Amino acid sequence: MKPLITVIIPVYNGAMLISQCLNALHEQTFEHFVCYVINDGSTDQTYNTVKTITQYDPRFKIINKVHAGTSSARNQGLYNVHTKYLCFLDCNDIPLPNMLEKLYNMAEDVNADIAIANFAYSNNYDENSKKNESNLIYKTLTNIQAINHMLLGQEISTKMPCKLFKYSNIADVFFDERIHINEDALFLLSAFRRASIVLYSEETVNIRKNFDHPYPKGSAGKRRLSSLNASLYIMRGLNDLDVQTQLNGVYYTVNNALKVALDLYSHKTPTAAKAKKLSSNIC
Predict the structure, then answer these.
(1) What is the β-pairing status of strands 33-40 and 60-65?
(2) Distance between CA atoms of 33 and 35, rounded to whole angstroms?
(3) How far apart are alpha carbons 107 and 219 in whole angstroms?
């Protein structure tokens, strides 16, 4: 049977984390998937780790590229999608065994464009309290409702994992490679705008490990500054929608700008002055 889901995993110097993610994918109850691991110029043992784990499973492919950031790595994966559905993970994600099956069944149940479930951070996850319903329990949202839930931080996270996309709806959507933080939200806005039916389940299907991203030294300030740019792009992308959604976009943008500015000021980064100027323009 041909694969039905493409899983894209960008990784940069994630040798200490990627093994758990890939092993969890090996154990998925839904077997009809192909996984592209995009090695974004890692300088540690990432490539060897991935090769060792996946060499005997033809569903897993490794693509090596020059380091250019998460957005560029994900786009490299998008060029290889030929399945009905698409899902993103990061190297610090540990999908529960039924994650792909749950998301696939949700989407197929009502021909949804996007199916979304929850993830939990490992330090807040209680193994004994997890749900494992056999029945599909979800709510149906319009694309505007989904956008507003994301902007207000209600249920729908701006993180990419635990979201299954009907690929035909987003075949022309790519990540903005100028953006290094908040690129997920910008992609999701475009995906939601193209959707007719969005499903959301509160069930946890993925565990995310907390870790410090191993980005090149000195890049933190520029990365945070790009998050402010992403917020501006998001707000502009709401201009033709209803007034309430635009107001929610302003809330999202200002809230993000304040968080980034405070973070930059507290770390006294070289880009703090630029952030101050940009955040003053937003506010």
Answers:
(1) parallel
(2) 7
(3) 38
Q: Mention every residue, 6+ apart, whose C-beta is less than 8 A from residue 282.
A: 228, 231, 232, 253, 254, 257
Q: Which residue has the tokens 């290889």?
A: 80
Which residues have C-beta within 8 Å of that of residue 64, sequence separation ≥ 6? 39, 41, 47
CA angle 268, 271, 272 (to 5 degrees): 50
Q: For residues 230 and 240, what is the distance between their CA atoms, to the nearest angstrom?
A: 18
| DSSP-derived pairing of the beta strands 33-40 and 114-121 | unpaired
pLDDT for the residue 239 = 87
**Distance (Å) of CA 16 to CA 8, 20, 70:** 18, 9, 18
Polymer length of the chain? 283
**Each residue's pLDDT tens digit, 115-170:** 999 999 887 676 655 555 556 689 999 999 999 999 998 889 999 999 999 999 99
Count of C-beta atoms within a 10 Å radius of residue 36: 21
Tell me how far apart the alpha carbons of residues 93 and 213 are, in angstroms, rounded to a whole number. 13
CA 12 to chain centre: 15
- End-to-end Cα, the chain, rounded Å: 53
Determine the Cα–Cα distance for residues 186 and 188; give it in Å rounded to an integer. Answer: 5
Q: What is the DSSP letter of 215?
A: P
Please list, in sequence order, all residues whose beta carbon lies within 8 angstroms of the beta carbon of residue 281, skipping any fewer than 6 positions away: none
Which of 8, 63, 6 lies closest to 30 in space, CA to CA? 6
The two tokens of residue 35 are 């996984």
Lowest mean pLDDT across 94-98, 170-174, 258-262: 258-262
pTM above 0.85, yes or no: yes
- Which of helix, strand or coil describes residue 120? strand
Cα(245)–Cα(151) distance, rounded to whole angstroms?
8
